[in-house]
From TrEMBL:
<dbReference type="Pfam" id="PF00349">
    <property type="entry name" value="Hexokinase_1"/>
</dbReference>
<feature type="domain" description="Hexokinase N-terminal">
    <location>
        <begin position="39"/>
        <end position="237"/>
    </location>
</feature>
<keyword id="KW-0808">Transferase</keyword>
<dbReference type="GO" id="GO:0005829">
    <property type="term" value="C:cytosol"/>
</dbReference>
<dbReference type="Pfam" id="PF03727">
    <property type="entry name" value="Hexokinase_2"/>
</dbReference>
<dbReference type="GO" id="GO:0004340">
    <property type="term" value="F:glucokinase activity"/>
</dbReference>
<keyword id="KW-0324">Glycolysis</keyword>
<keyword id="KW-0418">Kinase</keyword>
<dbReference type="GO" id="GO:0001678">
    <property type="term" value="P:intracellular glucose homeostasis"/>
</dbReference>
<dbReference type="InterPro" id="IPR022672">
    <property type="entry name" value="Hexokinase_N"/>
</dbReference>
<protein>
    <recommendedName>
        <fullName>Phosphotransferase</fullName>
        <ecNumber>2.7.1.-</ecNumber>
    </recommendedName>
</protein>
<comment type="pathway">
    <text>Carbohydrate metabolism; hexose metabolism.</text>
</comment>
<dbReference type="GO" id="GO:0008865">
    <property type="term" value="F:fructokinase activity"/>
</dbReference>
<dbReference type="InterPro" id="IPR022673">
    <property type="entry name" value="Hexokinase_C"/>
</dbReference>
<keyword id="KW-0547">Nucleotide-binding</keyword>
<dbReference type="GO" id="GO:0006096">
    <property type="term" value="P:glycolytic process"/>
</dbReference>
<comment type="pathway">
    <text>Carbohydrate degradation; glycolysis; D-glyceraldehyde 3-phosphate and glycerone phosphate from D-glucose: step 1/4.</text>
</comment>
């Protein structure tokens, strides 16, 4: 009897051990499949120096073509009408509106020249409701103007507007615009999830000024710049050697200072400075040398603008979370990464948002220009 009980105990232990071994084997196989997916992805994403040089050369060709003619390149290489940048001597009260994507920011700053620099500044961020990104231009700009009016109404006594002057607004608009002057420009196309088709080809400054009037606010837009140009101006305010600005955020773009005589499509007289800030709109860059994976291709095919903004879809915050989701979903389907059941939220497009930080930075070239 005692012997039978002992044999039974041994059998139970053996069975438990066998089950544990099988579970470990299943786990090992599962993680091996996960590793295989990641290894395959890594191979397809690899970008050694030689490949990066090919990408660089391809972008250089597109840059030159974009400077030569309006429709000669995937890169718009937009003339910004900004031929001089801040010196640090500026004084007075300034307002700014930055519409960069799914959020916008309004700011006021009191500048005190070389000695005092920024005396005081305040800003507030506002999220744009999803439905306003595809409705009408009136609804979008009325929403923005209402937030601006509320912000101006909160202006304290620490801010001083010179007597007899009207509040002026610098408008940073982070979408492709064909500028016709320093304070006007027509929308070329929407990016970053916006889709208000009636706005394409219209003057966005005129739209905003009309919305400001509807709010009863005494203010006008005096300057229109792209966010990359604004970043370049901010860099120049701090360091006079700043020549290039790059943004990696919801989208991505770059701006730099170009010699006026290196812009064949510029037919007006050269500015006094001899230079012109160029807004590259490099989010639309595309090259056979870019390491596109099946995840990138599927994301592009299912996007609102297939075939466009490829560089932006490879690098910017709006799309990084979605690429990560697609990779995790494949690992869940092929390697049971999360067990036998796939989490339902993992099948929801864009459930992971903005996995990379917003980066606005300047590149110091020490008075060197692109050759």
């Amino acid at each position: 009897m005692r012997k039978a009980a002992a044999l039974a105990a041994v059998a139970v232990v053996a069975a438990a051990a066998a089950i544990a071994v099988r579970q470990r084997l299943r786990e090992a196989k599962r993680w091996a499949r996960v590793a295989a997916v990641l290894s395959d992805l890594q191979e397809r994403c690899v970008a050694p120096a030689a490949r990066l040089l090919q990408v660089s050369d391809a972008m250089d060709v597109e840059m030159r073509a974009g400077l030569a003619s309006e429709d000669g390149s995937k890169l718009k290489m937009l003339v910004t009408y900004v031929d001089s940048l801040p010196s640090g001597d500026e004084k007075g009260l300034f307002y700014a509106l930055d519409l960069g994507g799914t959020n916008f920011r309004v700011l006021r700053v009191q500048l005190g020249g070389k000695e005092q620099r920024v005396i005081k500044q305040e800003s507030v961020g506002v999220s744009i409701p999803q439905h306003l990104m595809s409705r009408s231009s009136h609804e979008l700009f009325d929403f923005i103007a209402a937030a601006l009016a509320k912000f101006v109404a909160s202006e304290g006594e620490d801010y001083h507007l010179p007597e007899g002057t009207q509040r002026e607004l610098g408008f940073t608009f982070s979408f492709p615009v064909k500028q016709t002057s320093i304070s006007s420009g027509t929308l070329i196309k929407w990016t970053k999830g916006f889709a208000i088709e009636e706005m394409v080809g219209k003057d966005i400054v005129a739209e905003l000024n009309e919305a400001i009037k509807r709010q009863g606010l005494v203010m006008k837009v005096s300057t229109l710049v792209n966010d990359t140009v604004g970043t370049l101006a901010a860099g120049r305010y701090v360091d006079n050697d700043t020549m290039v600005a790059v943004i990696l955020g919801t989208g991505t773009n770059a701006a730099y200072i170009e010699h006026g005589d290196a812009i064949p499509k510029w037919h007006a007289p050269l500015p006094k400075s001899g230079d012109m800030v160029i807004n590259m709109e490099w989010g639309n860059f595309k090259s056979a040398h870019l390491p596109l994976t099946e995840f990138d291709q599927a994301l592009d095919a299912e996007s609102l603008n297939p075939g466009e903004q490829i560089y932006e879809k490879l690098t910017s915050g709006m799309y990084m979370g979605e690429i990560v989701r697609r990779i995790l979903l494949q690992m869940a389907q092929e390697a049971a990464l999360f067990g036998d059941n796939i989490p339902p939220k993992l099948e929801t497009p864009y459930i992971l948002k903005y996995v990379v930080p917003v980066i606005h930075y300047f590149i110091m070239q020490k008075k060197k220009y692109f050759s």
